[in-house]
């Protein structure tokens, strides 16, 4: 009985707390954000099958939710993808300011040279030199953009995690981060392309998932994220809270 109660308690804790920590999850088994139940839209040549967003260099996927992004709070954006295209390719974009004010949007890319690039408005851009690691090699790569507002508030306070290694942002115009809310149509997040520039730097390949957390995850927490389905991520959210309480 005690074991059963403990199990039930863990499930309940996972259900209650993961909704607070995990603010958006797109597994691409369907077109829904499993947290808000918002249904997304495929555009251009984008399709979803086999639990992946499949992209052909035209169009992408967008969801009519900001995914919990907004204001000055901490966040982590995580995605996993596969590509062999030697081109600059948008993985994720959120453009509430529609490309206007510095520090008020965020987008990241796989570069033509195999590196990873993070950008915000008005000159805040930083490319991570990954050395021998090539994001365009056809392997599956996991990337994360991490912002901890308690330790810094500007672009150069962001960290980038690529396949388990964390890099500090050291370049780009150091705007204060404030992901303000613009017009309703601009509050969407998108994968594979940018809503405010839909033919520029489009993705060719597969994006396997995307998610947003309302906290700054550690490298070990990012690595521990399972291939997401709704049930798996609920369990992850609960265990993450338990592990943090033990520290």
3D architecture notes:
The chain has helices spanning 2-21, 219-223, 230-246; strands spanning 22-26, 40-42, 47-49, 52-56, 61-63, 75-82, 89-94, 106-110, 116-120, 124-128, 141-147, 159-162, 165-168, 189-191, 204-213. The chain has a single domain, classed as Jelly Rolls (Sandwich). The strands form two sheets. Strands 1, 3, 4, 6, 11, 12, 13 and 15 form an eight-stranded antiparallel sheet that branches. The chain contains three helices and 15 strands. The longest helix is centred in the N-terminal third of the chain and has 20 residues, at 2-21. Mean pLDDT is 86; it is low at 1-20. The protein has 247 residues and is an alpha+beta fold. A hairpin with a 3-residue loop joins strand 9 and strand 10. Helix 1 (2-21) packs across helix 3.
Largest sheet: 8 strands, antiparallel
Secondary-structure element series = HEEEEEEEEEEEEEEEHH
Helix content: 10-25%
* Uncertain spans: 1-20
Please summarize what this structure is:
This protein has 247 residues and is α+β, with helices and mostly antiparallel strands. It has helices spanning 2-21, 219-223, 230-246, and strands at 22-26, 40-42, 47-49, 52-56, 61-63, 75-82, 89-94, 106-110, 116-120, 124-128, 141-147, 159-162, 165-168, 189-191, 204-213.
